[in-house]
């Protein structure tokens, strides 16, 4: 990503988490500079006490590290003085997310980016299949219930008042939603309201990460793939690097996109296109098998019922990509924020070849991958 030159009132950014999402966000924000060439942000990472920070190599600045036991008092202390918090942990844990958000408001933090970075959480059929996604949707409703910003920005399709999804079901915000808690009082002791703003972003499947792990059914080691559906079903995806770039651009365009649920996938692809690209990247013919999407759902449910929730859930997540009836890609196609954010489309070839390279060279000291 080319260095961004920016001026913004957002200077102090705290990222919660120490895994790949937090790392790519830190790397992207670390590369942003002001007009005078100085780093744009003071960056802080918040983790549990036992966790280390996975900071980018060759960082322009020293990234501060704070720890917390994630009690409300500890979180308020950690958040003091920050302009923005970005949550990259426990996206499906409603109680923890709300605790973090409430602590941010109580600490006087004005902005939050919740943990999304995946499929369309506002799609009710996806919520029905994936309970953690339903929890993420509850978090969006909660954020809407406490926001205090004013007018509707232009340039981004609104989903605030019942975005009409594929089935005609309202999957937007209702101020009378029974899931919303009483929340926090976003006022100072003198009664002045503290403005609180948020942006959530769906990026689709993080393609390179899923290819390396094999969670999508593509086995790079043995050049084989199991595809659910016809293989021609379109789905939204992004590279891991793209997630960081999206966050950097959201901050740069904050006033244009605040208090919105954004769709910012790097690309739209299909399983058959990925197979073709994998064959080109590996230089080998792949063995490909096809199965019905309903079989993926059935096996996922069976694994969960047998006491293997993680193994079952990744199959359920895979089924969302390949199940045409869910129309999970439609919001990304119709409501893309990429133009507003100044983001170009990613190349399927580049993302897939990068995943193959990572799989083949991960851990090799002489790789030079950077």
From TrEMBL:
Coiled coil: none
Domain NmrA-like: 61-147
InterPro entries: NAD(P)-bd_dom_sf, NmrA-like, NmrA/Isoflavone_reductase-like
Keywords: NADP, Oxidoreductase
Gene3D superfamilies in alphabetical order: NAD(P)-binding Rossmann-like Domain
Keyword NADP recorded: yes
UniProt cross-references to SUPFAM superfamilies, sorted A to Z: NAD(P)-binding Rossmann-fold domains
Superkingdom of the organism of origin: Eukaryota
GO molecular function, one term: oxidoreductase activity
Keyword Phosphoprotein: no
The protein, known as: NmrA-like domain-containing protein
């Amino acid at each position: 990503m080319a260095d961004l030159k920016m001026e913004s009132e957002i200077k102090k950014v705290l990222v919660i988490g120490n895994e790949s999402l937090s790392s790519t966000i830190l790397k992207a924000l670390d590369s942003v500079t002001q007009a005078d060439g100085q780093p744009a942000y003071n960056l802080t990472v918040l983790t549990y006490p036992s966790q280390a920070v996975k900071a980018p190599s060759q960082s322009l600045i020293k990234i501060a590290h704070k720890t917390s036991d994630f009690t409300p008092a500890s979180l308020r202390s950690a958040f003091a003085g920050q302009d923005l918090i970005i949550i990259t942990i426990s996206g499906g844990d409603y109680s923890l997310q709300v605790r973090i958000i409430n602590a941010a408001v109580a600490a006087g933090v004005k902005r939050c980016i919740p943990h999304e970075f995946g499929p369309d959480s506002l799609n009710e059929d996806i919520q029905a299949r994936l309970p953690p996604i339903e929890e993420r949707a509850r978090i969006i409703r909660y954020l809407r219930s406490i926001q205090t910003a004013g007018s509707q920005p232009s340039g981004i399709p609104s989903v605030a008042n019942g975005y009409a999804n594929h089935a005609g079901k309202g999957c937007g915000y209702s101020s009378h939603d029974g899931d919303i808690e009483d929340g926090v009082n976003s006022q100072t002791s003198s009664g002045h309201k503290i403005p609180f703003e948020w942006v959530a972003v769906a990026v689709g499947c993080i393609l390179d990460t899923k290819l390396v792990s094999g969670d999508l059914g593509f086995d790079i080691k043995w050049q084989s793939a199991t595809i659910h559906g016809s293989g021609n079903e379109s789905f939204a995806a992004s590279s891991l690097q793209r997630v960081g770039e999206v966050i950097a651009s959201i901050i740069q365009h904050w006033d244009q996109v605040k208090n919105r649920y954004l769709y910012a996938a790097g690309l739209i692809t299909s399983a058959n296109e990925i197979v073709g690209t994998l064959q080109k990247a590996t230089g080998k013919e792949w063995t490909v098998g096809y199965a019905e999407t309903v079989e993926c759902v059935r096996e996922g449910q069976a694994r969960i019922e047998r006491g293997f929730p993680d193994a079952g859930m990744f199959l359920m997540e895979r089924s969302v990509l390949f199940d045409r009836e869910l129309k999970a890609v439609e919001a990304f196609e119709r409501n893309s924020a990429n133009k507003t954010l100044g983001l170009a489309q990613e190349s399927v070839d580049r993302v897939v070849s990068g995943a193959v390279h990572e799989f083949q060279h991960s851990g090799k000291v002489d790789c030079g991958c950077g």
